[in-house]
Amino acid sequence: RRIDSKNFKALGLLETSNKPNTNTKTTTTSPVYWGVLLLLLSKLSGCGHIVTTRLLLRLGYFTPANLAVLRNVVTVFFLGALLLLKSDLRKNLKHIAGEVRSNWRSVVPGAAGTFVLQTLVMQSLDLIPATNLAVLSLLSPPFLFVIAGFILKTERPTWVRFAGMVAAVAGAVVIIDPTGFEAGDAKATVGNLLCARTALCYAIIVTVQKHLVASVPAAALQFTFTAYAFPFFVLLAACFGDLGSMALTAESAGGAAIVGVFASLDYYFAFASLKYVSTLLVGLSNSLLPLFVGIATYFVNGERLSWKDLVGAALILAGMVTVIAAKTEQVERAAGRGGGDDADGKALLELDELDRVSRESRAKPTEVP
């Protein structure tokens, strides 16, 4: 029986098979390792921005509110320059703006989450050491595991991936003993509670990013979130009376610029990695933060690394490898097809091949005997 491409179009299969064929190649040939590299760069940048922020606040150069304003000014200029300098992004600015407008229902929660997350991070780093924030950021993988695996059902939770996540979280907790947290006074307790809330905000933002990153480039997505949230940072600083209290010197301005650039790179690399890896792995990569922050404080404050740091690093590595090895393809509900099932993927490829053969056979001239 002759296969007609119109039948495929009526079923909505031809467009999905033709378009994602490129995506299928992208996901199978490069992807996980490229995504892991981006996550590694993200956490290195995150370490730089956390440690520098804590240093600036501890030295009294800024308050959390006015440092947040300066950080986002740097972020807007940095990402704006990136959008203009990259030719592929510059040529598609109109299309990107259209995608942002059409996805405004997801952009608004992303911008709100960005504002809340950054505010909590700044306020907590004014109260507690950076290592506390690094360890408590490990609450984001369990949040993501529940959100993506059981609420949205965009990922397939398995016991192997859960075991890998637990191993990585345990490794990070071993590196910095949670019993050493400065929770004896109310100030430190409030800081730790703020850190716990940042983990939930991070999980929500990553979930929103995963939904948008296929249609909006990472740099444009972060620029949009920051631009939408920026007026609220200014308003918050004005409410605290901190706008006029900035002591801008060459040293403090340079520190604020470093914070802004590192923070931009942190979120940019994390956003970009979502094209290649699952949200669970993005959250799990926070397990690297205690290790990086611990090394940074070793050089800054002269703290020694102990055997617990080595054991923790081994557990983090084992957990990351376990999750990566057990990675399954994502269920793309937004695309209207089950991308997470190998059988579905093969069926789409077979349909694509059948349609190609059908078109070629119709294109051949009919031979008259």
UniProtKB/TrEMBL annotation:
Keyword terms: Cell membrane, Membrane, Transmembrane, Transmembrane helix
Transmembrane stretches, start-end: 32-52, 64-85, 106-125, 131-152, 159-176, 188-208, 220-240, 252-269, 276-299, 305-326
Protein's UniProt keywords contain Transmembrane: yes
Chain spans, region Disordered: 333-369
Residue intervals of the EamA domain: 34-176, 191-323
GO cellular component: plasma membrane
Membrane topology: Multi-pass membrane protein
The keyword Transmembrane helix is annotated on this UniProt entry: yes
Pfam families assigned to the protein according to its UniProt record, in alphabetical order: EamA (PF00892)
Compartments (UniProt record): Cell membrane
PANTHER family per record: EAMA DOMAIN-CONTAINING PROTEIN, OS03G0707200 PROTEIN-RELATED
Family to which this protein belongs: Belongs to the drug/metabolite transporter (DMT) superfamily. Plant drug/metabolite exporter (P-DME) (TC 2.A.7.4) family.
Protein name: EamA domain-containing protein
